[in-house]
Design goal:
Layout lengths: L2 H17 L3 H8 L3 H15 L1 H35 L1
Helix pairs in contact: 1-3, 2-3, 3-4
Length: 85
């Protein structure tokens, strides 16, 4: 694995753990695709640091279990905003 990829993988993992970030938020922060973030933190991170991979997986699993709530909140805010106009 190339050095810059390894650095990005570790930086992504650190960002996700520090901010409890979603894949989408990490992708926006690092200006890469969601697919790249997902591959980095599930496959490549496992090769670099298995213990760190477990911690990141826990955050991503929590985010995945809560995504329907965030989606509902976003829809609610959208329609509240439309009705206020």
């Amino acid at each position: 694995m190339k050095d810059y990829i390894e650095e990005r993988v570790l930086a992504l993992a650190d960002y996700i753990l520090t901010n409890n970030a979603t894949v989408r938020a990490a992708a926006a922060q690092f200006k890469v695709s969601k697919s790249t973030v997902h591959k980095d933190v599930t496959e490549r991170l496992q090769e670099i640091s298995p213990s760190l991979a477990v911690q990141v997986k826990a955050v991503l699993d929590l985010n995945k279990s809560e995504r329907h709530i965030r989606g509902g909140q976003a829809t609610r805010e959208k329609y509240l905003h439309l009705h206020q106009q």
